[in-house]
Design goal:
The chain has 284 residues and is of the alpha+beta class. Helices cover 38% and strands 17% of the residues. It contains eleven helices and twelve strands. The chain has helices spanning 31-36, 39-58, 62-72, 83-91, 100-106, 115-127, 159-162, 173-179, 199-207, 217-224, 264-276, and strands spanning 5-6, 13-14, 76-81, 96-97, 135-141, 153-157, 166-169, 193-195, 238-242, 245-246, 250-255, 280-283. The strands form three sheets. An eight-stranded mixed β-sheet has the order 8-7-9-5-3-6-11-12. The chain has a two-stranded antiparallel ribbon with strand order 1-2. Strand 11, helix 11 and strand 12 (280-283) form a beta-alpha-beta unit. Helix 2 packs across helix 9 (199-207), helix 3 (62-72) packs antiparallel against helix 9 (199-207) and helix 4 packs across helix 11. The longest helix is centred in the N-terminal third of the chain and has 20 residues, at 39-58.
Length: 284
């Protein structure tokens, strides 16, 4: 079988969406991680980082450039949800959180009649071909903030439960494809993604040229997750986590006490379940 990927044990070709070799059943890794760490992606990202580094030198921002890189090494994966989906996650029998596409396929979610749900398969499959439906979406955060557009409860995930299966992409795929004029059937440009351990390189390639030399840590956080976080126009680094996530992967949840009396018992149950899992709960 001709394939870009080969099993490390038997050297049989591995299809882009496979988790194990069809011949020897050896674990070949998560498809999104293999795809993001291809040589062509690494080389293009390295070239972008080098150009941005040179710009930082010309701008007198070398120290700030290095500080941002160090700060991003401590960044966390966060996702925002409304109370109902959060309850369904932590209070269900399985306590598993599935991707949007899996929930639709299972009949547990109906697509909205908006532009994003109508076009998301086209956009997401262009960026993550073959395996886009297996990906849960999160964002990279420096200060614990999240995209409240998706719900008022910001969930921080435990790094040890997601790092090995998470890839980092420079922005929302919809915005990326429009920015680069990628049309159906065209390959998107490379050098805008990485594995989790190289997330600082994706951030630096994106933001490094914008640094002026006087930024603070608060400025770093706002650059990383920029704009109105309650709007679908905000800019951020998108994370792609392969597979379902157990509620035990939640490190903390930050959000408001509900104002609707009907939601109060639901929130109490959520808090009790989270605390039983050892997750921190912070009220805003």
């Amino acid at each position: 079988m001709a394939s870009e990927f080969k099993c490390s044990e038997c050297r049989w070709g591995v299809a882009p969406d496979e988790r194990e070799c069809v011949v020897c059943k050896h674990d070949v890794g998560f498809p999104n991680v293999r795809y993001a760490t291809r040589a062509v992606e690494r080389e293009a990202l390295n070239a972008r980082c080098e150009r941005v580094s040179q710009t930082a030198v010309r701008n007198g921002a070398t120290a700030i450039f290095e500080q941002l890189a160090e700060r991003v090494e401590l960044s966390k994966a966060v996702m925002n949800r409304r109370l109902g989906p959060l309850y369904n996650w932590v209070a269900s029998e399985s306590q598993l959180f599935y991707s949007y596409h899996q929930l639709v396929k299972q009949g547990h979610r109906r697509p909205n009649e908006d532009t994003y749900d109508k076009q998301r398969i086209a956009a997401e499959s262009a960026i993550s071909p073959y395996f886009f439906d297996q990906l849960n979406i999160a964002t990279l955060s420096l200060d614990g903030r999240g995209l409240t557009y998706y719900g008022p409860y910001t969930i921080t995930l435990k790094e040890k439960t997601i790092a090995h299966r998470t890839t980092v992409f420079t922005e929302n795929p919809f915005h990326f494809l429009a920015r680069h004029n990628v049309v159906a059937g065209s390959e998107p440009p490379v050098g805008f993604r990485s594995g989790w351990e190289d997330r600082a390189r994706v951030v630096m390639a994106k933001l490094g040229a914008q640094l002026g030399g006087s930024e603070t840590e608060d400025d770093f956080a706002k650059r990383l997750m920029n704009g109105d976080l309650g709007s679908d126009k905000s800019d951020f680094i998108e994370l792609h986590i392969f597979g379902s996530m157990h509620a035990s992967s939640i490190a903390s949840v930050r959000g408001p006490d509900p104002a609707d009396p009907e939601d109060i018992p639901i929130w109490r149950t959520v808090r009790r379940k989270l605390e039983a899992l050892g997750a921190q709960v912070e009220i805003e």
